Amino acid sequence: MRIIFNLMGCSLGNNGGSLTIIKSANTLLRLGHDVEIADTARNQNSWIPLLVKHRIVKNINDIENADVIIATGYDTVKTTLEYKKNIPKYHWIRAFETWKMNESKIIEKIMKPSTKKIVNSICLKNKFLKYGFDSEIIRPGNDFDIFYPMNIRKDNKKIIIGGLYNNRNKEHRGRKRVDLFLEVAKKLKDILPDKIEIHMMGDDILKEKNIVDFYLKSPSEKEKNKFFNRVDIWVTFSCSEGLHIPPQEAMLSEACVVGVDEELAGTQDYLINDRTGIVLKSTEIDYILTMLKILIFDSEQRNFFGKTGRKKILELGDREENMKKLINIFERDMEKK
Questions:
Q1: Is residue 147 part of a domain?
Q2: pLDDT above 90: residue 69
Q3: Does some domain include residue 146?
Q4: Could you report the per-residue pLDDT of 128-148, keeping only the tens digit for each?
Q5: Where is the Glycosyl transferase family domain (predicted)?
Q6: What pLDDT, in 10s, does the model give residues 146-187?
Q7: Residue 177 and residue 286: Cα distance in Å, rounded?
């Protein structure tokens, strides 16, 4: 099957969205499909190799003989529908991109057009159902050979609280709630200075060195796995995700994960309160501190969530399993043509 990922106007960079596209395309190639990325700029992702053909085009119809075409970012919907060949045209929606446009424009310009809608998470499916738009869920899958328990957490001298750092811009930092994490971290260190350490990971230059004890900048996947294996409690307050990937990778290492009860937390597919981790009912500081202190002093509960969390992520399947589900959708719709 000849599959085209449309990135015209979006392009590939060092970010989670691009990584998902590259890994999905590479997996489909390994499964025997002819996969190509249509783009308007060169590939700027340096994290992993891109194995499929990456073609810079001015017009989507410069791509020949596609069997299916997939819009990726919101900016690619229009050009996807402009593809002249009568084939299934999809939009794999991986975020509710309010940084691109407001909600009413998302519905008018993204959901109403006639692409077949695929989302990557329960929270996006539920979000669009509120407006009367159904979709199918295809998750990208995880790398079970890259993220796994290393049995080194027991060597920690203190309880390590981990989180994702972002300082790209005010809007992005706000959606990730980095400042909330840092505020909680500072208060925890004031309360329990001899008990905890704060470790963070990201691609930006860390400014808050007085709060963060260890910072891993632009890590390789091998370095990320070791980082997650040191973390006892991974905390995410993010409120604008599709399917949030770092908490899944932390869970695969058997870290205990704490998230938030938000419409677009991006953790609903795997973080189940009191079963696979903790879902905070509030972002009020004293409440967060209380819940985290319980976990800090209860290693048995942390270990339980670590085991059940990893099991849940394994149940969601690896990349090949999930890309085979995507191919099943394509084959079904091609038969209808």
A1: no
A2: yes
A3: no
A4: 999 999 999 999 999 999 999
A5: 174-311
A6: 999 999 999 999 999 999 999 988 888 999 999 999 999 999
A7: 16
pLDDT per residue as tens digits for the range 207-232: 999 999 999 999 999 999 999 999 99
Question: Residue 68: CB partners within 8 Å, gap ≥ 6?
Answer: 1, 2, 3, 4, 87, 88, 89, 90, 330, 333, 334
**Mean of all residue pLDDT scores within the chain:** 96
Is 163 domain-assigned? Answer: yes
- The amino acid sitting at 322 is N
Sign of the alpha-carbon torsion through 8, 9, 14, 19? negative
DSSP string, 88-135: -EEEEE-S--TTTS-HHHHIIIIISSSPEEEESSHHHHHHHHTTT---
- Enter the tokens of residue 272: 């189940």
Asked if 273 and 309 touch (Cβ cutoff 8 Å), the reply is no
Query: In this structure, what CATH number is given to the domain that contains residue 122?
Result: 3.40.50.2000
On whether both 124 and 218 belong to a single domain, the answer is: no
Is the pTM higher than 0.90? The answer reads yes
Domain that holds residue 137: 2-141+318-336
| 37 phi and psi angles, rounded to 5 deg | -110, 125
Residue 240 near residue 199 (C-beta atoms within 8 A) = no
In the numeric block, the tokens 């294996």 are attached to: 229
Q: Are residues 59 and 205 in the same domain?
A: no
